[in-house]
Automatic annotation (TrEMBL):
Name of the protein in question: Gfo/Idh/MocA family oxidoreductase
PANTHER family: BCDNA.GH03377
Highest taxon in the source lineage: Bacteria
SUPFAM superfamilies assigned: Glyceraldehyde-3-phosphate dehydrogenase-like, C-terminal domain, NAD(P)-binding Rossmann-fold domains
Keywords: Oxidoreductase
Keyword flag Oxidoreductase: yes
Annotated GFO/IDH/MocA-like oxidoreductase domain residues: 130-253
Organism: Streptomyces lavenduligriseus
All residue ranges annotated as the Gfo/Idh/MocA-like oxidoreductase N-terminal domain in the record: 6-119
Pfam families: GFO_IDH_MocA, GFO_IDH_MocA_C3
InterPro entries: Gfo/Idh/MocA-like_OxRdtase_N, Gfo/Idh/MocA_oxidrdct_glycsds, GFO_IDH_MocA-like_dom, NAD(P)-bd_dom_sf
Length: 355
């Protein structure tokens, strides 16, 4: 492998651009860009110094080290499988696949090939999230009540449309499969507790969307239990007016409670029995990276992506960065998504999650 990790980006929408920028920030090099058409590939390649447009087959045949898959969900399984079979390390966007069977297939293949295979659960990379994780890990009695929400409004209008709305491209669960899995991944990452059973109710704000009957949920309510004995509750919505990308959690214990808000990610609220504190991000504290800017110079979504890609590339070089979300995390998310769908279809029946 050459000094700088050589990457290809597949998919040129929102995530294609974010990944391209993150590769450069992580000191990798975007060599190839593949899109749904040569024109789309050229458009992004022209915006990334040194990148060339290509087709997916050329990406597979090339000598790039890592393939970043940033396409709609239903394409992930086939593309990630082919990239692993071609000997590439793979970053595959979430959800890793649209079924447990496909996600398990990819996790198994990644393990057999020994390639680095990661999924961008990037909210893990906020310094304030890492701080909450280390404080909970070092605390006396852990949280017993885990609650929060992930609310958006980009699908609030009945006219708003996207490939995610279509189950054949986005998957059978839309709001949970798109954003609920971020919250669950973050909860399990921060608390170290895993969901063992859940019950879910799913619903739509609009029975008809963009002229078609809505086949995927706009939101839902999930109750859960964990292997650490905690109780939990999560509300998700993509039709909550005014909420842009509000991933919020409160993990409450008798000694301390921890609150994080993705729209204000520089601080972590820590409630205590005698006093409450708001901890500003500080690179000297756990979770701060050597290259991070000093507190007061806000860390954002792009920086989380850059740190995620930097850690993925460190793994490609043989290092073992802490907290890297691998295809196993993608498989876990697929299992949770299937449990949510099964529970909701059975009138919110308690549904167990396989370990
Ligand atoms: P998008 O719709 O903006 O972009 C998808 C791109 O894929 C489009 O440019 C489309 O032309 C291209 N495409 C479609 N078929 C293709 C093919 N056969 N070959 C190459 N390119 C093809 O969607 P967005 O928001 O970028 O989402 C992409 C993926 O990233 C999804 O799986 C989504 O769930 C995930 N995502 C993850 C985020 C995160 O925080 N980790 C944030 C946003 C999206
Ligand atoms: C749209 O809901 C979206 O872009 C998701 O696909 C991402 O995963 C989330 O991080 C932000 O919102």
């Amino acid at each position: 492998m050459s000094q700088r990790v050589q990457a290809a980006i597949v998919g040129t929408g929102f995530m294609g651009s974010v990944h391209a920028r993150a590769v450069t920030a992580a000191k990798g090099r975007v060599r190839l860009v593949a899109g749904s058409s040569p024109g789309r590939a050229r458009e992004l390649a022209e915006a990334v110094p040194g990148a060339e447009p290509a087709g997916f087959e050329e990406v597979l045949a090339s000598d790039v080290d890592v393939v970043h898959i940033c396409t709609p969900n239903h394409l992930h399984h086939d593309m990630a499988r082919r990239a692993l079979e071609a000997g590439k390390h793979v970053v595959c966007e979430k959800p890793l696949a649209v079924s447990v069977r496909e996600a398990a297939d990819l996790a198994g293949l990644a393990a057999r090939t020994g390639r680095v295979a990661t999924v961008p659960f990037v909210y893990r990379f906020y310094a304030s999230v890492r701080l909450a994780r280390s404080l909970i890990g070092a605390g006396d009695r852990g949280p017993w009540l885990l609650h929060g929400s992930y609310l958006q409004d980009w699908l609030a209008s009945p006219d708003a449309d996207n490939w995610r709305v279509d189950a054949s491209r986005g998957g059978g669960s839309r709001a949970f499969g798109d954003i609920g899995i971020h919250w669950c991944d973050l909860m399990e990452f921060v608390t170290g507790q895993r969901i063992t059973a859940l019950q879910a109710m799913l619903g739509t704000a609009h029975p008809v969307r963009a002229g078609r009957p809505s086949a995927t949920e706009d939101g839902g309510v999930v109750s859960f239990r964990t292997d650490g004995g905690a109780l939990g509750s999560l509300v998700i919505s993509q039709a909550s007016a005014g909420r842009k990308n509000r991933l919020w959690f409160s993990f409450d214990g008798p000694d301390a409670s921890y609150v994080f808000d993705q729209e204000n990610p520089e601080s972590l609220w820590v409630g205590g029995p005698d006093a409450n504190r708001t901890l500003a991000r500080d690179p000297a504290r756990p979770g701060g990276r050597p290259q991070a800017l000093p507190a007061g110079h806000p860390q954002g979504y792009h920086e989380c992506f850059a740190d995620f890609v930097a850690d993925t590339y460190a793994a490609v070089r043989g290092e073992t960065p802490d907290g890297l979300p691998t295809f196993d995390a993608g498989l876990r998310a697929a299992r949770l998504t299937q449990a949510v769908l099964d529970s909701a279809a059975a009138d919110a029946t308690w549904t167990e999650i396989p370990a």
